[in-house]
Amino acid sequence: MKSVFSSTKQSPLPQGSATYAMSSAIELGGTSALVGSISDAVRMLPALSAPPVEWALLLLLPLAAGLIAMLTARITVLRALARMP
Fold first, then answer.
1. Coil, strand, or helix at residue 59?
2. pTM over 0.90
């Protein structure tokens, strides 16, 4: 069986990634020219301040989402296995 990729030379990057990289660089250059510099852009953002309890809850959020996904998958698989003859 002949491989699809055997007769063509493969680029290490996906097709279009060079164009994407160039457009991103142009966009970043234009943004920094508008803002002045990256440090000026950072100073425009509000300070992140939250009580430690809120930071802890924010850190636990991905864990909670993972547990919900795990339980949903478990229930779904067990229900499908129960229906099998």
1. helix
2. no
Distance CA 61, CA 51 (A): 16
Of 39, 16, 37, nearest to 28 by C-alpha is 37
As a whole number of angstroms, the distance between CA 38 and CA 40 comes to 5
CA angle 56, 51, 47 (to 5 degrees): 110
Tens of pLDDT along 21-62?
A: 777 777 777 666 665 666 666 777 777 788 999 999 999 999
Distance CA 55, CA 65 (A): 16
- Per-residue pLDDT, averaged over 73-81, amounts to 97
Domain positions in the chain are 15-45, 48-85
State how far the Cα of 10 lies from the Cα of 48, in Å rounded to an integer.
45
5: which DSSP letter?
T
Q: What is the DSSP letter of 48?
A: -
